[in-house]
Design goal:
heterodimer; A: 313 residues; alpha/beta; Rossmann fold; Alpha-Beta Plaits; 2 domains; 6-stranded mixed beta sheet; 4-stranded antiparallel beta sheet; 14 strands; 36% helix; elongated; B: 246 residues; mainly alpha; 12 helices; 0% strand
Chain lengths: 313, 246
Amino acid sequence: MIQAIDLTKRFGNKAAVDRLNFEIPKGQVVGFLGPNGAGKTTTMRLLTGYLPADEGRAVVLDKDVAEDSMAVRRRTGYLPENNPLYEDLDVVDTLHYSARLRGIEDLEERVRRVKGVIGTCGLTSVVAKKVGELSKGYRQRLGLAQAIIHDPEVLILDEPTSGLDPNQVQEVRSLILDLKKEKTLLISTHILSEVTATCDRVIIINAGRIVADGTPESLSGDLQDKNRLHVALKGPPAEVGMALSRLGGVGNLRPERVDGEEDGFLLESAAGHDLREKVFDLAVERRWPIVAMRQERLSLEEVFRKLTREEKP
Amino acid sequence: MKLPVQWAAVRAIALRGLRNYFESPTAYVILFVFYLLTGYLFALPFFLVGQASVKGLMDFVPLILTFLVPGLSMGLLADELKSGTFESLATLPIEDWDIALGKFCGYALFLLAAVAGLAFFAVAAAFLAAKPFAIDWGEALGVLSALYCLGFMYGAIGLFASSLTRNQIVAFVGAFMMGFFFFALGKIAGFFPGALMEFAESAGVDSHLANMARGVFDTRDLLYFGSVAFIFLYLAAQRLRTRRFS
């Protein structure tokens, strides 16, 4: 569906996008992550044909974006960064204008499409408002409505939730989740919860290169250098501590407060070494009820920081 | 760049542009100043010489248009480039050529309304003529057509200037300088030697305007305005295309 093959774009001497390779199959929703200036927007511009690549190819819907640009544009929806709109038009006019430019000439058909996206994007209450008077959340919905008015197979959204308040983020997010059912989506963002909430897969780029690619879960697994287990057993703390430290595979043990329990411990073991069953067996054997136990995972935030910091020159 | 043109898209862009003019205060301010200035300069010699004719418009309206058209055209593309809406336009299934042509058509329609407004002066002249309505209507039509053609050509130049920058003021100055070049070329032609003089005369607007204003519609004059407009339209479309490569 979407393919980048050695995709490269330079501005002056600096490569904004540097030999990028990835493939997004039909129906997948991919979060495109990276710090500011990592090359997210440039990549999206290359995929939509707004910018030509210096090297490599962008292939969307089995068509080369450079050679068959019109065919790609016809079946792709794009929400550019900052969602530029004409401030002086009202919502309905904006959508009719987009539909016209998309070649939907027939009035009946156009009205049907416009009504359709107004419903899908929850714009009913603001149809007659000027774009300049819309709140940021509604602007964003209008941008999305514009991007899907021709029912594209591929949707490329550049920061669809940036600058929104948490309620608005939630609204736009549920809209994306609705679209997800039938379209292939590439969504750039630097809001990480966005990705966990909506995406099947994450591609993290930094300085124009891919630094990680996988499901949110697999990424945090891959990057974990140690397995950490927080545990609190109801028993004499000194004895519990001693017993836990003797469990096979425990590398390091430290007393700590676990989920409000005073006498808890942090157990570290080698990556991939799960201690939970052993802790359970111990608890049963000694009749020390487990009051708290939590396996620590690297959050996407931590994965992101780890990858994008280390790679920086 | 591929022609055939996608007329549906061109029409949509043109109508949107036209509507934009009618809703923008800047356009009204420019028109107000235009009619005021024209009216004043038209009326002055009118009573002094005592001749009922619109020919007098040709003495100063071309110069006014040289200033006025850049004001109308400066935002055509610069505004889209600045606000970022160009990115949306440029990723739609339409060619850069369609965008340039659509913008230009919107301008050309508005110009038609603006120049048609000058017909008021012809009617005024007709009322004031010794024998009411006995003015040379062919000449009046010639004058208005000549002014329209000039504005048409200046508009294409302005569109090109507007494609060069995000800054409307820069677009204005650029359009004015290029327009003034064509405006002045015919006037200074006399200073050039031989063949160069002929070239300057036919490249400048004066000789073509003079023919039309007499009510003589020569294909060569129409071709002149049309081809200069086409060249600048083409340049504007090219500029939009190469802008992506920078």
